[in-house]
Structures are given as C-alpha cells and as structure tokens.
Amino acid sequence: MSSVFTVKIVGPAGAGIKSGGLLLSRILLSHGQHLIDYSEYPSLVRGGHNTYQVSFSHQPVSSIHYQLSLLISLEPNHWQLHKTELTKKSLVFGPDAPLVLPLSDLVKPIGGHIYANTVALGVIAYCFGFDPSICHSEIINTFSLDSPNLTAFDAGFQYAQNNFIQYQDIFKIHSNAPVKRALIVDGSEAFGHGFLVGGGNFYAAYPMTPSTGLLHFLAQKQLTHPITVLHPEDEISSASLAVGAAFAGARAAVGTSGGGFALMNETVSFCGVANLGVVFYLASRPGPATGLPTWTAQGDLLHAVFSGHGEFNKIVLTPGTHAESYQAAIEALNLAARFDVPVIVLTDKLLAESSASFTPPTYIPKVVSSPRHLPGSDDSFYMANSYEHDQNGFSIEDASLVKKVVTARLSLSKKIVKYLPKPVFYGSDQAKTLILTWGSTKMAVLEALNMLDNPSKIGLLHFPSLWPINPNWALMFKPFKNILVIENNATSQLSTLLASAFPFKPTSTLLNCDGRPIYPEQIVKYLKPYVS
How many domains does the chain have? Predict the structure, then answer.
C-alpha cells in the first residue's frame, strides 16, 4: 500500500483557507501527486471555523483521510478542535500550537494577515521537500510575477528552515512527472465538463449550496461554448425555463439542492407526463428544511426516486467519483433525449465541492438524440400537455384510453433498465462479504479496502444508478455470506429502496448522520470482524 499523506489548514472564514488550499493542490499536482480534498465551513460570511484538507500520494488516492500528517492553524484557538485527528507522528503548527509559528510577525512586513495562508504553504513545502521553484511557478500562475505571495511563501519556507530543521523532508513523497492533461476539478466542475462534451446547451439554476458551483462553472463557459446559462428568480422558474428549453429542442439541465428540488417536484411530474427529457442536478445536503446548508449527507435518495406525484418514468443516476460525475452528465443527457423522461443526477456536498486530480477522457462521446416535435416545425404537431393525453397531446378522460396510455408509458421502464449504467464490482472472487454503496461513499470504501491487510475477503458493489431498479440485481448478492450497506444517512435508504423491489435485508449497516463524511478509517474499524 502506498503512503497517503493528509494536510489540513484551519482558521476563521475570510482567512483565505480555501484559496490557499487549492494553491497547495496545484503544487501537489505539479509534483506528480494524486489528490482529493475536502473543506468544511459554517453558514457564515465571516467568523466561525473553516477547514481545508487534502489527502495525496504518488499513486491514486480515492478518499480524504481522517488522520492528519500535518495541521496548520492560521489563528489561535483553532487547531485544538482537531485533536482526535492527530497521531503521535502528526506535526501541528500555529501561533499557539505545539510547533509555534508566529504568523502575525511573519506577515507584517509583507502586507498583513491575508498572506498567512501562503506563509503556511512555505512551511508545508519545507516539511514535504517540495521543489521551491515549482512552488514559485504555481504562485505566479495563480497570482502574478510580482505578487507578495512569493515573498510570503519564501518567508514561511525560510522560517521553517531556521526553526524546524529537524522536520525537513520528514514526510518522504515520491515525486512523479506531472500527469499530462490532469486537472483539479470538484465534482460539479467534473459534471460541467461532461455536460459540455455531451452537448448540453442550456442550464438554469437559482443558487443553493452545494449545487452553486455548477452554475458558476457553466456561466463562465458561455464565452467559449454554445451554451445559455440563466439565473432566474427562484427554483420553480429555473425548472420551468429548463422544461421550456427542452420543448424547444435544447439539451437542458437545472441544478439545486434538497429544498430547491422540493419546489421543482411539480415540474418533474410535468416532464413525466409531457414526455420532456430534462436533467436535474441534485446536490444533497442534510435536511429537512434548511438543515445543515454547508455540510454533507446522502439523505435525498428516496426523495429523488419518488419525486413528483403520480406514476411515471424517471431515471436516477448516483455517481460516486469525479470521473463518474463527468460520465453521468453525458449519460443523463443521452438518456433524457432517448426516452424523453426526467433524469436526476444525485450527488452530495462531499463530491460536489471536493476537488480531485482528474484527467478528462480523450474520446468523443456519442451524442444520442431522438426525433423531436419542435415548435414552429411545418411537418409535425405535438402539444406538451400536463393533462393525461393521447400521442398528439390532446387531453383524454376515456377510461379505456387512459389505461392504455398509462400502461404504455410505464412499460418503458423495462427498456430504460437496459440502458442504465450497471452495478460495478470491486474485489476478489474469493470475497465472502459484500459491501453495497452508492454515490460518494464509494470513495471512502475503495480507500478503506486499500488500507486492509487482507482485502481479499471483502468485495464492493457500487450502484452508479438506482432507478429504475433491475430485479436481477438480487442474484448478485447470492454468493456472499454477509451483505453490508454503507451510506451517509440515518435510515439506510438504499436498504429501503432495494427491499421495495425484492426481498432484501442486510447483515449489517454502517450509517452516518452528523453532516460529516464517512472516513476510510471508520470503515476499516467497522470491517474488522469480517476480515479477521
């Protein structure tokens, strides 16, 4: 198993923790490291306690880790909140930390506390043996050739050299050549790249954490891509605009989080009856109501699957990694176009806002389209009617005709199942215990399996789509003695969903409902009885 290092920067909001962390990630990428990051922040503009952490290795790393290699606090009274994450080997720097770092004194001649985050990067670079010239290049690319951040970085590096010489290169990284074409993207940006490659040309959204990043990303792309991005007055308007765009022939999507998606439910139903393919990007956060606006959870699975009133076809995709988020955007657009149904891409704050090293595929994906009755066409006629209707859109109420139309509509689900991404198995054929996951929890489980001394006893089955359910999935569980479900909610919604389709009862579940991710260290501990 390769060494995975985790660095965490903490302090108050407004201290540039996220921007400093992303600069650190770019430095890591330039040293050939694979990485994934995670940030926490309260729902405050200033104040509170913010964090940024990044786990990295010279080999692929799937998830952030809980235990820290190095922790830097930009102000007093912050590092103490993370004592449970420290080990005997952890280094802790800060104004009041075990390894005193007088940031206020170091930044005074540079221009103030705004540069404390870059001073901290200098200390990190010293401890990991980063190439200062590479660090300088990344700082220049991020800011400018004459940026005070260069002076700030050197001040941190020099202070560490003078005061922490015993920690020089204490963490031995394997520097690789930078991965060609590699990017640092969060889950929403990965989805956005896939959306553009897949021919998406209309996006509407009202800002709502944690989906807002996709709105910002695609809005910027209007300058270079044939896409229209709108920010209307609320979520209902956003969904309605996307539906109108789809009716006019666009490959359209709309984005939101749980409370916003609740407002869009009538539109989901309208898409289902009017045969309009729209993609809904649903980035979950803890609920109910406002819940925990800036934290993470997987509590909206059943909400997505059973969204809308009445009975109609819909598709729910559940990507688990940045690469899957990219692919899910392409698949969602194609499925919406092929079957003219609403497609919900369900992610969460952890995946949507965490960045990772990612290399976009070089292939050009196939763009699937279906015959459309476009408004204004001389050779076709169709009404997108919210009433039950016949094939031309005319309202109907005759009992026999209604039954025929409803039966024909719902029968499409058998065909849809054949086009959905299939469950993916990871592990040995000798495994007797099977873990089931969906969404971002896959990342932590994969990392945990890599940390086990005897991983051959454990297999992982990940579901990149969860609706419609293929009843044949039940056959995949038969070879295993133990079935474990791991997900980031309180009630094991995956278990409930599977049990609605066929007899299903897991051996055990590992659940989390505190707004934080499930970490691989938790999973390793949970799996001990099954690998001993």
Answer: 3
